[in-house]
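Tokens in:
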């Protein structure tokens, strides 16, 4: 039994979920208002028998205790594994002496920074020499509640007050320097890093103080803002100011607003806008975007309207492209932005602030105007067209207009929506005064030039001397752990075949919105094991980068525990997949033996095999959801869950399973003819 299975065997999902939602008994199951979005009637159901959960409302998501804790807390798998192992009383792989020492030092640094934050906060509230700092706080219209919530403080205009205070608490000079609170000069003298500044603690997404943003109070000070230096805890590329306080609101509204400054966030908070965070550098980073994607489905960039703010917005859009495609060269490719928003299901828009105002000013003067501005956020494509063509006039040369058009065409055509693509090209044609048909011709040429052969995915198999492990099989309806493991194994061998499988799912959709939801591309939810879900997500992400082979990408991105699962799947003997779990038409063993024979005879020539397995996984997932829907209906007759939307979901589920059944029958008949 793996450590994941051991944890799930010891913990009850009801105990875990009840810490976040008010569960009410509904027959053999439990229901509650969904903790991931706002709703008036309960659509969130927990199934004790299968130890799973599902939202039958706007989210449409589900999973086990791991996926629930990861989503509700915004943690990655490693963090969740450690926390749930602690709750279950399971000791993970023993740490080395070096790891234990490092963990102890990290904890001491956290405690030191918390103490420093309390010291600065006390100085702001009580020190006689902080009158001018308190006057500045009042001038910025920061109320007592906001000052308390963000633990805003004051660094005295002194060389050693903070240093001596921390030394009196038992911290060494070296540790105070490592925490970034003090500095040592070339002569060896140690003194306070921050002096005569308004101190704003910067916390990670779990609320731990990891550094400070210090605002100068002396107008003559050359550095308006001074941040903590890069260190063991403070890495501005991984931090978002205010995220620890905004997480819940972001999750409830499914929207996050990204601004440029600390004061913007604080002002928004005290005005009641709890979903605002600030980037820590000149642009959003990949890590920051990935954090936000855990909580939000909609991101609004609301940066300052000056040139620096516009440039920051464009850099942020570039990072979104970089995040999706895995590129490491920073060049603005708008096409990547569209692919990012499509793949991660995050709708990214941009707000243009009034000239001369930043979010802090606007929110303080007119909160209603701020809310209205966010409602009028424009799609990325519209923003980019506006920014790149703003300077064009009737005197602009054809060469200049053509250059801009060729630069912008990728973002306007990188979408599967013909209507959106056509509308974007029409908008560009009007702005650059170039015929639509000409733009379309350029688009086709660009796409043809960009086409290149897929990189070789042949890898030297590693002979791992690990004991062979059998995949765990559960007995839940529509659940086939062997089939999931075998499908993931095929994807590990030939990841690029996933695109063909997803095309097949799209082909089954008949332009029906409800049907389109249940016939979406293969996703992590098609796998019932948490470790398989995470491996699939990273494997899918590996297809959008060129620097590493997929297996090397997984080795770099996954935890050691998860990469062991990858290696086990790759060397798993055929016998380990033979546990029967009720597959349609043929048994698991017969099907897998047939598939294995086809792999041996035609290792890279037949995509039909993977398509069949993907369709089977989707059918299994729909069967699981049908089973859940049935018991929800039986246990809560006449409940709000039996409304029109509920019945539409049931109907779409039935239609999709029928279409998949028919497609699989046809494909398997074709396969028998070939063999």
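Residues out:
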């Amino acid at each position: 039994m793996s450590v994941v299975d051991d944890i799930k065997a010891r913990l009850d999902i009801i105990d875990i979920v009840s810490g976040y939602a008010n569960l009410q008994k509904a027959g053999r199951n439990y229901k509650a208002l969904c903790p991931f979005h706002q709703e008036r009637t309960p659509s969130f159901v927990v199934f004790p028998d299968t130890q799973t959960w599902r939202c039958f409302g706007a989210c449409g998501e589900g999973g086990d205790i791991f996926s629930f804790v990861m989503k509700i807390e915004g943690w990655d798998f490693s963090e969740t594994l450690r926390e749930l192992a602690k709750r279950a009383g399971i000791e993970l792989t023993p740490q080395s002496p070096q790891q234990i020492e490092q963990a102890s030092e990290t904890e001491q640094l956290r405690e030191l920074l918390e103490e420093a934050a309390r010291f600065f906060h006390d100085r702001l509230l009580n020190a006689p020499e902080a009158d001018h700092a308190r006057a500045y706080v009042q001038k910025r219209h920061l109320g007592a509640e906001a000052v308390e919530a963000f633990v805003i403080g004051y660094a005295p205009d002194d060389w050693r007050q903070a240093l001596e205070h921390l030394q009196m608490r038992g911290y060494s000079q070296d540790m105070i320097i490592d925490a970034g609170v003090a500095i040592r000069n070339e002569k060896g003298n140690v003194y306070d890093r921050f002096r005569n500044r308004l101190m704003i603690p910067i916390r990670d997404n779990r609320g731990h103080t990891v550094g400070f943003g210090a605002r100068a109070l002396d107008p003559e000070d050359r550095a308006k803002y001074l941040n903590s230096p890069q260190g063991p805890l403070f890495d501005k590329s991984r931090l978002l100011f205010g995220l620890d306080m905004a997480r819940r609101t972001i999750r409830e509204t499914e929207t996050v607003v990204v601004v440029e400054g600390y004061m913007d966030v604080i002002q928004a908070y005290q005005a009641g806008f709890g979903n605002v965070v600030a980037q820590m550098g000149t642009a959003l980073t990949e890590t920051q975007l990935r954090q936000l994607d855990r909580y939000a489905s909609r991101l609004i960039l609301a940066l300052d309207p000056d040139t620096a703010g516009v440039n920051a917005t464009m850099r942020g859009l570039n990072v979104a492209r970089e995040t999706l495609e895995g590129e490491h060269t920073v060049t603005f490719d708008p096409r990547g932005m569209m692919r990012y928003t499509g793949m991660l299901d995050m709708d990214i828009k941009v707000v243009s602030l009034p000239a001369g105002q930043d979010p802090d000013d606007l929110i303080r003067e007119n909160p209603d105007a701020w809310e209205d501005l966010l409602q009028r956020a424009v799609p990325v494509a519209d923003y980019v067209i506006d920014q790149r063509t703003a300077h064009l006039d009737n005197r602009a040369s054809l060469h200049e207009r053509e250059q801009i058009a060729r630069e912008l065409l990728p973002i306007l055509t990188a979408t599967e929506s013909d209507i959106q693509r056509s509308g974007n090209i029409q908008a560009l044609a009007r702005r650059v005064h170039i015929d639509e048909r000409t733009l379309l011709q350029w688009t086709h040429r660009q796409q043809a030039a960009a086409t290149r052969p897929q990189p070789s995915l042949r890898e030297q198999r590693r002979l791992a001397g690990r004991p062979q492990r059998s995949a765990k099989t559960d007995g839940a309806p529509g659940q086939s752990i062997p089939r999931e493991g075998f499908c993931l194994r095929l994807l590990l061998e030939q990841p690029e075949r996933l695109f063909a499988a997803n095309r097949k799912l799209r082909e089954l959709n008949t332009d029906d919105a409800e049907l389109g939801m249940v016939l979406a591309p293969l996703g992590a939810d098609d796998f019932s094991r948490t470790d398989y879900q995470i491996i699939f997500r990273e494997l899918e992400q590996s297809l959008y980068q060129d620097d590493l082979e997929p297996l090397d990408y997984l080795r770099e991105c996954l935890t050691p525990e998860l990469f062991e699962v990858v290696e086990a799947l790759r060397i798993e003997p055929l016998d380990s997949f033979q546990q029967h779990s009720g597959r349609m038409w043929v048994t698991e063993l017969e099907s897998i033996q047939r598939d294995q024979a086809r792999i041996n005879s035609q290792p890279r020539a037949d995509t039909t095999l993977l398509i069949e397995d993907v369709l089977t996984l989707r059918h299994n997932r729909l069967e699981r959801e049908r089973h859940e829907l049935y018991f929800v209906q039986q246990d809560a007759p006449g409940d709000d869950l039996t409304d029109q939307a509920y019945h539409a979901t049931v109907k779409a589920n039935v239609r999709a399973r029928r279409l998949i059944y028919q497609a699989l029958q046809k494909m398997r008949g074709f396969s028998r003819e070939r063999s």
